[in-house]
Design brief:
alpha+beta, 2 domains, 4-stranded mixed sheet, 45% helix, elongated, binds FE2/S2 (inorganic) cluster
Length: 148
Amino acid sequence: MANYKEIIATYKDKPGGIIEAFHAIQKEFNYIPEEALREAAKAFGLSEAEAFGVATFYSYFSVKKRGKYIIRVCTSAPCMVAGGDKLLEALENYLGIKLGETTADGRFTLEATECVGQCQGTPVITINGKPIPEVTPERIPEILSSYK
Ligand code: FES
């Protein structure tokens, strides 16, 4: 895993570099850790509040701790009708977290998504952006076991 200090140093002298640095950090960590925000503020000559403002202005960025793997459950109508609601409940129970939360071991974050264009395989989840079709509550342990 790359170090956020190295990432920030790479973009330090570029115009608009803080945005690119945040992108790269989020790609690596799935969110922007507080220490990285502080480091970026220093490197780009901003106050911490300003750096925080940049990170939270774009809804794409998350400053809340997220897991290594982001599980998103499609909550659009076709998936919900096909059992997506039960699936979401089963995932919450299996992981012991609620929607929007991250497991204590930092492995999984559970989020919702709109239709991901895979309606032929409802209900659908994505894990770090990869769609997985026809997920049933019974398949959850097997699917998640390959994400260490
Ligand atoms: S509604 Fe879920 S993938 Fe389209």
